[in-house]
Specification:
Dihydrodipicolinate Reductase, domain 2; 2 domains; 11 helices; single chain; globular; 9-stranded mixed β-sheet; 23% strand; alpha/beta; 6-stranded parallel β-sheet; Rossmann fold; 370 residues
């Protein structure tokens, strides 16, 4: 990772491409905190909808509002571009930013296809720029604790896992974009599954998709899916849902012990040796809070704080050449796994359907449509 040339007062200049719900709910507060602490400055907001850029610009007085990324790159010269546009546009916007000399922090999912993801990685490498991927759960100290326990062999070998994450879909939407395969690329697997798969990759390494089934019909996207996965030294099942609450969390069982963690408990895991009592382990892991070498460190306690620490890590990669929590080359494993899922998709068995209803659902499954 190489340092970028900072302009003006040496404060990193940020550009945001895509000013929708993700930025409004999660990035806006983090970016305001960065500005208030003098860590970075937002200089450009890009979105084809002028109402979105106008609303966001009220919070960032020094930021110009632009309808196109090309105009913003020409006029604003950002050091780091945050790509938060729809996934189908991630590759286009990231490659353009690299071409203009900017580093990139790209929201999840990294790309809509393996080809797009590889194009982003190649462009970053050619431009010698940082490509960080916005996988906020990499900032969970519970992940650091789980990795430490696995590395120490606390659970033994022959690891098996079950990871469930589900709830009723509640993300604010203004169009049917997220519910059409042609525009969103997929449903709950793209949404929740990207986080879950990345978390498992961080624990176990490169995945192999053994089985995949979902309930997507025709041009729609899946609301439920199940994935069978094999990793080096571990195997198990992932269940995801947009329509029903599940017993959310990850459970890992090995020859010597067990570990559980909940997706919303950021700081701790529970584990026990076989035959022993359950123990809560709070992680001591911390992250830098600003760009100073040897400066203050902290631990994020909310999802929004994870976004703040994630941007700080991307900026430290730009300024000091430090590694990011997950880069484009690492995230290729997740993009490939999602592609492998969809490539072998079958119709999900739904226990609440009668035999005839299940047969009709099977016939309507998207994988069978011309």
């Amino acid at each position: 990772m190489l340092r970028t040339h900072m302009s003006g007062d040496m404060t990193p200049r940020l550009m945001v491409v895509g000013c929708g719900a993700v930025v409004d709910q999660y990035y806006r507060g983090a970016l305001r905190k960065l500005e208030s602490r003098g860590i970075a400055r937002v200089v450009a907001l890009v979105d084809p909808d002028p109402l979105r850029t106008a609303a966001l610009a009220q919070h960032f007085r020094s930021a110009g509002a632009f309808a196109t990324q090309a105009e913003a790159l020409a006029r604003a010269a950002p050091d780091l571009t945050i790509v938060a546009s729809p996934p189908s546009s991630h590759a286009e916007h990231a490659v353009a930013a690299f071409g203009a000399g900017s580093h990139v922090l790209c929201e999840k999912p990294m790309a809509a296809s393996v080809d797009d993801a590889q194009r982003m990685v190649a462009a970053a490498r050619a431009a010698q720029r940082v490509l960080a991927i916005g996988m906020t759960r990499r900032m969970y100290s519970s992940l650091a604790e789980a990795r430490a326990l696995l590395a120490a062999g606390a659970l033994g070998n022959r690891l098996r896992f079950v990871y469930r994450e589900g709830g009723v879909y509640g993300w604010p939407v203004t169009t049917d974009f997220p519910f059409r395969r042609s525009t969103a690329g997929g449903g709950v697997l793209i949404d929740k599954g990207t986080h879950v798969l990345d978390f498992l990759v961080a624990l176990f390494g490169e995945p192999f998709v053994a089985t995949y089934a979902d309930d997507g019909h025709a041009e729609g996207v899946e609301t439920n899916c199940r994935i069978g996965l094999d990793f080096p030294g571990a195997s198990g099942m992932v269940q995801l849902s947009w329509s029903q609450p599940l017993a959310n969390g990850l459970r890992i069982t090995g020859s010597a012990g067990q570990l559980t963690l909940h997706p919303w408990r950021l700081d701790a895991v529970r584990w026990r040796r076989n035959g022993g009592a359950w123990e809560t382990r709070v992680s001591p892991a911390t992250w830098p809070r600003d760009l100073r070498r040897g400066g203050p460190r902290g631990t994020p306690w909310t999802y929004e704080e994870c976004v703040y620490y994630q941007i700080v890590q991307a900026l430290r990669a730009v300024v000091h050449g430090e590694p990011v929590p997950v880069d484009g080359e690492q995230e290729l494993a997740v993009v490939r796994a999602i592609h492998a899922c969809y490539r072998q998709a079958t119709s999900l068995r739904l226990s609440w359907l009668t035999q005839s209803e299940q047969a009709r659902a099977d016939a309507r499954h998207w994988s069978l449509q011309p």
